[in-house]
Write a sequence for this structure.
């Protein structure tokens, strides 16, 4: 296995965000400030990826033509909303969102034979095939899944962002080849209001999805206990790749959610999930997802990346 972590860093990629909005570029700046201080120490482990292939055609792997054109139009116009009011359009939002998709696609392809990749400006799990939702314009995860599914056969998608990954869940609800394990705040208390524990897949895909609801105030111990349920879920299941959306918005103090995970437990949980890919000898991509405390975002991701270096 490659003893490297491929870290996606690109000036356009790190523009993924919205003006005067909880999801803004300050989070990447907080990360970069910290990364500058450790860059030399981890030079043998962390490979910075600045350049990657990017084409509009990738979007069509997951999104409808009409929706792609709609985003393009609003991006040129530079005003209005891409959804019902959470995801504003601005000039260039199409290009920034496309680059985010290209980074995640490149990450999974680069590590399809093993290794670790990280795209902090990815994990836009609320976007549907034909619409934006919850700060997510294009679903980079969906495009990544479609890019490698012929090679990986089954893909394990893990989501510990505080919000349910509805854009992925409902796109693959009836698809037995996409395994989904998603821990999130109970839909009774948080957007998008889906992801009940009785939602376990449809038709021939029943049993290939797990939705775990945690209550407002759930702490790091609860997260760690729930994460360990993945062992039972994946027993006797085959998969050729792992994608982890590790949104940090469940960490104490987040302005948009009501969870109380501590940083140590969160990092431990992510390491536990990464070790699943290592144990099976398959590649893994980690995605930044949500997280609306810029300093926490920067600190947690530095810890995750450096601690993964210690696992390699
Ligand atoms: Zn979230």
């Amino acid at each position: 296995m490659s003893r490297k972590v491929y870290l996606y860093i690109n000036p356009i990629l790190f523009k993924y965000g919205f003006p005067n909005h909880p999801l803004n570029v300050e989070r990447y700046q907080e990360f970069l400030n910290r990364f500058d201080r450790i860059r030399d120490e981890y030079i043998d482990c962390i490979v910075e990826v600045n350049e990657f292939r990017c084409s509009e055609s990738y979007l069509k792997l997951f999104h409808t033509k009409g929706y792609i054109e709609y985003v393009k139009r609003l991006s040129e116009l530079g005003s209005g909303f891409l959804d019902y009011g959470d995801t504003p359009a601005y000039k260039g939002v199409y290009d920034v969102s496309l680059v985010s998709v290209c980074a995640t696609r490149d990450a999974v392809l680069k590590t399809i034979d093993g290794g670790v990749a990280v795209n902090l400006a990815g994990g836009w799990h609320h976007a549907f095939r034909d619409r934006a939702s919850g700060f997510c314009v294009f679903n980079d995860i969906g495009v990544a899944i479609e890019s490698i599914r012929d090679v990986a056969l089954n893909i394990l998608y893990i989501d510990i962002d505080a919000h349910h990954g509805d854009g992925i869940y409902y796109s693959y609800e009836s698809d037995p080849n996409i395994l989904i394990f998603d821990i999130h705040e109970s839909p009774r208390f948080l957007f998008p209001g889906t992801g009940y524990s009785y939602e376990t897949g449809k038709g021939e895909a029943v049993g290939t999805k797990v939705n775990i609801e945690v209550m407002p105030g759930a702490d790091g111990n609860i997260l760690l206990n729930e994460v360990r349920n993945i062992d039972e879920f994946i027993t006797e299941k085959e998969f050729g790749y792992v994608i982890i959306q590790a949104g940090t918005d469940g960490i104490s103090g987040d302005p948009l959610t009501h969870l109380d995970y501590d940083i140590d437990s969160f990092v431990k949980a992510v390491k536990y999930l990464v070790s699943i890919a290592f144990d099976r000898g398959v590649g893994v991509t980690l995605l930044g997802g949500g997280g609306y405390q810029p300093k926490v975002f920067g600190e947690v991701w530095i810890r995750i990346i450096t601690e993964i270096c210690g696992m390699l």
